[in-house]
# Entry
Amino acid sequence: MNHRILFAALTITVLSACTDATGQKDPVVLRNNIDSVSYGLGTDIGNNLRMQLQGELLDTLNTAALTEGIRDALDSTERMTADNVRELVQAFMLDAQKRMLAKEENEAAENLRKGQEFLAENGQRPEVKTTESGLQYEVLQAGKGTAPGATDRVTVNYRGTLLDGTEFDSSYKRGEPAQFGVDQVIAGWTEGLQLMRTGSRYKFYIPAELAYGKSRGPGGSLPLNSTLVFEVELLGVTPSN
# Structure
């Protein structure tokens, strides 16, 4: 983010969150359309600022100094030059980026460790089979139908959870099965689906490297290096030709 974007975000933030000396928000009455538009614009850019400076990065800002800086800028009585501001903001953002990357690296390493420990123990269970790639699967219900190939399309119901049981995706909750190509999903799914036959229900234990690795997955909500657990029901197979 460059200093102009940050400055714009901070400027609009004060429209929706001015503070007095006690740190309490002053009540703002939206009397007309301009008031409402101003408030709406403030919440929009304020939300953008919050997303870009999440958690401790946002908490480090001095709200009182921020507010005074905005007011001084509006009055053309700034105590810093534009060059000073640019240098300060760029240094702050660089430091914030380094700290965030370090935090993510630690999170990824810890999640990878936990996943490896879980899989090592889980693989000792007699009902769990481990493939050469490291994918683990458990047959909950055997099917007698067609097995899909790598280029076929499948219709499935599924539920996905993290190791702590947190559900992050479910076709059951959406009320309809999912359809997609076998080779259009994560590697753990592509391999696992080809082990199944129509009518079967499997449980996949997918290592991070066969899932989303160091990305947070669709929607950006998954922890880095997550080991994922899926219960999958194969409802149908559509051949590619």
